[in-house]
Amino acid sequence: MPSASLSVPLVPFLLLAAVLALKHVVADFLFQTGAIARGKERRRGWLGPLALHALGHAGLTLALALVVAPRLWWLAPVDFAIHFAVDRGKSVLGHRLELSRDDVRFWWLIGFDQFLHQLTNLGLAAAFVTL
Fold first, then answer.
1. What is the pLDDT of residues 84-122, one digit of tens each?
2. Spatial separation of the C-alpha atoms in residues 111 and 33, rounded to whole Å
């Protein structure tokens, strides 16, 4: 069986991964207002706040793409879609399980959400250095 090998330039990959992790902090904690954070978690009326939040992530990804590899601008809408889906999934699951902040499962869900976002960032970093 032939082995598949993929060579990734390690230093650029690690730098991009770090920049994308920082991008995540900026979009999730500096750009996201309390109204957006609460709004995207509502049972109704969540679409606008969630779209605005995911757009912040996509906008920063677009800015990075335009600096690093403008031909990869399309990674921004990919980031938007993934971030939107992960955050919506977290919200729906939290509502279905009726999780409160006092429930350890709430914090597990938050942790898994952040894990998925960082996996997305690693995928984006890999795309930037291999495409």
1. 999 999 999 999 999 999 999 999 999 999 999 999 999
2. 20
The model scores a pTM over 0.85? yes
Could you give the 3-state DSSP secondary structure of residue 119? helix
Neighbours of 9 (CB within 10 A): 11
Six token digits for residue 122: 């690693």
Phi and psi for 126 in degrees, rounded to 5?
-65, -40
Q: Which helix (H) or strand (E) holds 103?
A: none
Tokens for 103, please give them: 């429930």
Contact 100, 106 (CB under 8 A): yes
49 C-beta neighbours (distance < 10 Å), count: 20
Measured distance CA(53)–CA(131) in Å, rounded:
27
User: Can you spell out the DSSP letters for 68-79?
Assistant: H-GGGTTHHHHH
* Number of other residues whose CB lies within 10 A of the CB of residue 128: 22
Specify the residue for token string 């984006």.
Answer: 124
Helices 104-130 and 75-96: crossing angle, nearest 10°? 170
Distance, CA of 129 to CA of 8 (rounded, Å)? 7
